[in-house]
Amino acid sequence: MERKPYDLLLKSGRVVDPANRSDGVLDVAIKDGRIAAVEAGINPDLAEEVIDAENRLVTPGLIDTHAHVFEHVTGRFGLNPDRCGVQAGVATLVDQGGPSLMTLPAFRHYISEPAHSRVLCFLSAYLVGGLEGHHYPQLYSPEDVDVKRTIEVGLANRDLVKGIKAHAEVGGKSRWGMDVIKQARDIARGIGVPLYIHLGQIWPEAGKGIDDPDTVIEELVPLMKEGDILAHPFTRHPGGFISSKTGELHPIIRAGLDRGLRVDVGHGSHFSFEMARKVIEAGILPNTLGADMHGYNTDAGQAKTANRETSPFFGKTRFCLTHAMTEMLALGVSLNEVIATVTSNAAGMLAIDDEVGSLSVGQIADVSVLQQVKGRFTLVDNSGVTVNASEAIRPLFMLREGVRFDADSPVVVEPMDLAG
Length: 420
What we know:
This protein has helices at residues 81-84, 104-112, 147-156, 170-176, 179-191, 214-220, 251-258, 273-281, 321-330, 335-341, 344-350; strands at residues 6-17, 22-31, 34-39, 47-52, 57-60, 62-67, 90-96, 118-124, 161-168, 195-199, 229-231, 262-264, 367-380, 386-400, 403-406. With 420 residues, the protein is of the alpha/beta class. It folds into 2 domains: 6-59 and 359-375 and 389-418, Urease, subunit C, domain 1 (Roll), CATH 2.30.40; 62-350, Alpha-Beta Barrel (TIM Barrel), CATH 3.20.20. It comes from Marinobacter vinifirmus. One of its GO terms (molecular function) is deacetylase activity.
């Protein structure tokens, strides 16, 4: 029997595709793992399988730009990639600084290749990568960086390596100044990829410490160039976007953004509603929305090796990428802007927008199907600040190259758990 023109048809969903400025009730047809048509009124008889998407959001496959999924190798830190990925409605994950020049072969063989999710990385600038979630600051000194060899490894693995990850924070600066950041910058320039910088204190200060946490951002921004990325704009820890002296947005941030720097939320346990309001009210919206889930802040069904007593990074509240989307909506960011942060903007940051990040005909058929749940919800950050929300985003299922995966991961935050 002759096969029908389409393998699968998503029928009558609200298609939100920021890359194509599309927001309306449309059908999405898929053939051979690619987007075949996006238009209204496609005849269902033309598809081998039809899925009713009425009253559902249909978006390009979600992209999490800040993940930690180097499972087992990074100890308690790394989560299972598919639990954070396709089983949570997310097509693409970017491990931020888990693999290093020494461990990238293991990342490719044990994580990226077997995962159903697309798993990329920003290579760690440090020899040890993200072992135990940067729990031991003595492993992250300038002596623990090999600029030349990291460039060589990055260039040889450009299919996986989409950037370089490093940290600019109070504890590191008190030990080594900005030396590690300069090394990381040199690595990124040598490979030709963006530099992604963590902001907000991780490690305790050493020696005499530093008098002013603002000096971290003041010395960092001039080292960065267009396309580089500042992470954790909403951090509750010192050394971020909000000046410790004025309590307002540091002026050097706006100057950096005017030069083309990008911003990734990197939610994690750093996220603060108070800081988020200040940054957004200052007119700054993040380009991308990374979840920053890891074994110290998320129970993803992994072995109970992390606990709140031993880890300063453990979160008090549950979250995931779609929950972070809900929080951005509650802060007044529009639905189309939020979806752009996890689709077209994210694909552009990774330089993979020729294949994913939109529902353009011919692109890979990564498609997320979400439910926009209306109700009264209470959102809580790790400082205990609450925000009321009238809607929540819940992943239902996704198509990864046209193959369906239901969103049944333990990381998914159910809206009913947030009912106010």
